[in-house]
Amino acid sequence: MYSYEYFVQSPQKLSFYSWYGSTKLYHFRVPSDTMLLRWLLQAFKGPGSECTDVEITVHFRSGAPPVINPLGTKFPDNTTVRPSFSIKLIHNNTIINVSSPAPGDWFIAAHLPRSPQKIEVKGVANPCTYVFQPDMLVLRLTDVTVLQPDTPLSQTLSGSQLRHLKVFIPKYTSDLQLELRSCVSNGSQVCPVHLVVGPNTLPQSFQKVFSCTDQHEPCRLHLPAPPWDTWLQVTAEGRAEPNVSVTFDAVASFTAFFEGYSLYLSDSSREAMLSVPYPETGNWYLSLQLICPTNVSECQQVQANVEASMSLTPCFNDCGPYGQCRLLRRHGYLYASCTCKAGWEGWSCTDDTKAQTVVQQNVATLLLTLSNLMFLLPVTVAVYRHYVVEASVYTYTMFFSTFYHACDQPGVAVLCIMDYDTLQYCDFLGSVVSIWVTILCMARVKTFVKYVLFVLGTLIIAMSLQLDRRGIWNMMGPCLCALIIMISMWVYRCIHRHHCYPTSWKRWAFYLLPGISLAFVAIAIYTFMGTNDNYFYTHSIWHVLMASSVAFLLPPRDKNTEPWAWSQKLTCRYQLCKNTQEELYAVT
After folding, report:
1. Helix 535-553 with 420-443: angle, nearest 10 deg
2. Can you tell me the distance from the alpha carbon of 559 to that of 557, in angstroms, rounded to the nearest whole number?
3. Are residues 217 and 199 in the same domain?
4. Of 196, 201, 257, residue with least CA distance to 224
5. What is the pLDDT of residues 122-142, one digit of tens each?
6. Are residues 251 and 114 in the same domain?
7. Which of 216, 234, 255 is the last residue of a domain?
8. Are 417 and 457 in contact (CB under 8 A)?
9. SS3 (DSSP) at 327
10. Could you tell me if 99 and 11 lie in one domain?
11. Are 73 and 151 members of one domain?
């Protein structure tokens, strides 16, 4: 008797591969007594000509998530990797059948090809999406005959009939021997029986297949190191003619234990270590054996003291000094992986093939931090032209951008004066608010209105950054609003004065056009040219260009205000202050 069961998981958007967190992990549980497992793999791509065909890699593994290495990097020393089965497909439906699968946890990991390493600006990146969804259909046995150890079980098959058996493997079993006895086919000594024993776990299956067709040899199968505390499936298939029957006795027997990985200790090598990424869930055992040299007599009296220890860690060696261990969650399943920095790669960030040297790390940190000193130029211009609030904003931006990039660097060239997340938030806030106040200052609105807009805009920007820090509209939104205000004020003055505003061609030629050009070049570099490899070059250029652009775009000071006269206002006395109300109504 058979029953069908169908399992579905929600689709996930795929990512280009840069580290294990780029994969999308799917977790299924295969019921016991499953005879056929069918995977239905569905891949979709978004509409539009920009959505080209991309190869999708799908990995399968039973018992634990697949340990993959798409980048071809080196694993740490003394690491053993359980292989996984993988296929490649392109935006179509693919069906994979697995006969007699191992019951329990099965995992699927899917990802796109290697990441192009380009730094994508959220909201400006390629809108094309690739979605993957696996479904699982299982054919499950509902009536299976139990094969008891060392107890013959008589079976009769007609033609190509199937008979399903199962035997329980107890602990400490090292060998399983399955034998067919007294096998006859309608009175002859030929035994046309095909046996499939054990689960199929892909790719190194424990499954064994053999045929009992030789009448001169005993039909016997030896399976070393079978899995403990589990049911082992045995399928017998008749290979006789339709009207021919086959009769046999099935017998299973067990012996002692030895399996696993070999570690060797000696007087010259007193330590041995083994690391297993993503070990299968279940019981693990350690067995020790003392081997005497052939030239040593009385080996029975030789003794050796061995200390063994075992530890479970989310990431091997905590990913080392150039990596960070991150916890990931997919559909309620929690696992960990390393994300590497400073050019280091590999499963545990131990592959130094493309690693940055200490000199390169120091150069990157100095470029990203010292380039912020260019903001001294707009600070000086703003103070000289009596824009004290704007100068304060630029100073704030320069300070937090400097120390954020000092804290953001990988490797050894790192300096964090406060929490990283706080520094990042302050840096993003300062960058957007600087653009906001600069454009409003160019609008030349009334002082009271300008400061009200400063405060309101800063509050809105601060709240939006808390929701989505890297969204492109967190910067574009304030810029567009400020530009609308500035253009409206300029058009109003042009209509009111019947003359283009700003009125001076020198202001356009030597300040506005150079400032706008620098801003557009900076935005183009920031949006389209940044990669992980050239980040410290392109972002340093961004700092320099934006600071220079602000210095050009700041409007000139009020004609009625003398240079540095703001210091007198801060220390205003009765005899020095002007009566602005009297001047307002004076008749000239």
Report:
1. 30
2. 6
3. yes
4. 257
5. 665 556 889 999 999 999 887
6. no
7. 255
8. no
9. strand
10. yes
11. no
Q: What is the CA radius of gyration of the chain?
A: 37
- Measure Cα distances from 18 to 15, 45, 77, 100, 532 in Å: 9, 20, 22, 35, 11
Q: Is 293 inside a domain boundary?
A: no
Q: Are strands 16-17 and 104-114 parallel, antiparallel or unpaired?
A: parallel
The enclosing domain of 151 has a CATH number of 2.60.120.380
582 part of a folded domain: no
Decide the pairing of beta strands 208-212 and 230-238. Answer: unpaired
Residue 287 lies in a domain: no
What is the structure's pLDDT at 404?
95
Q: Which of 479, 377, 482 is nearest to 431 (CA)?
A: 479
Q: What are the pLDDT digits (tens) for 195-243?
A: 888 888 776 667 788 787 765 566 888 887 777 778 888 888 888 777 7
CA distance 309 to 326: 25
* Strand, coil or helix: 462: helix
CA 111, 279, 63, 201 dihedral sign is positive
Per DSSP, the three-state class of 410 is coil
- Domain identity same for 498 and 553: yes
Where is the domain boundary, 255, 278, 300?
Answer: 255
Same domain (yes/no): 414, 507: yes
- Six-digit token string for 242: 């339709």
For 147-182, the DSSP string reads --BT--EEEEEETT-EEEEEEEE-TT--EEEEEEEE
Instruction: Identify the pLDDT of residue 293.
Output: 67
Considering only CA atoms, which of 97, 103, 107 is closest in space to residue 168? 103
What is the C-alpha to C-alpha distance for residues 37 and 17, in angstroms, rounded to an integer? Answer: 28
Q: Are residues 130 and 34 both part of a single domain?
A: yes
User: Which residue(s) pair with 345 in the sheet?
Assistant: 351
pLDDT number for residue 78 = 83
Q: What would the two tokens of residue 341 be?
A: 């920095």
CA-CA-CA-CA torsion sign (540, 541, 542, 546): positive
Residue type, 497: R
Sign (positive or negative) of CA dihedral 510, 516, 517, 519:
positive
Q: How many folded domains does the chain comprise?
A: 3
The whole-angstrom separation of Cα 278 and Cα 59 is 14
- How far apart are the C-alpha atoms of 388 and 381, rounded to whole Å? 10
Domain annotation covers residue 299: no
Q: If you search the block for the tokens 């190869």, which residue do you land on? A: 55
Q: Confirm if 432 and 402 have CB atoms less than 8 A apart.
A: no
Cα 70 to Cα 272: distance, rounded to the nearest angstrom: 29
Query: By residue range, what is the domain housing residue 431?
Result: 358-570
Low-confidence ranges of the chain (pLDDT < 50): 566, 572-588
What CA–CA distance (Å, rounded) separates 565 from 103?
83
Whether residue 480 is found in the same domain as residue 564: yes
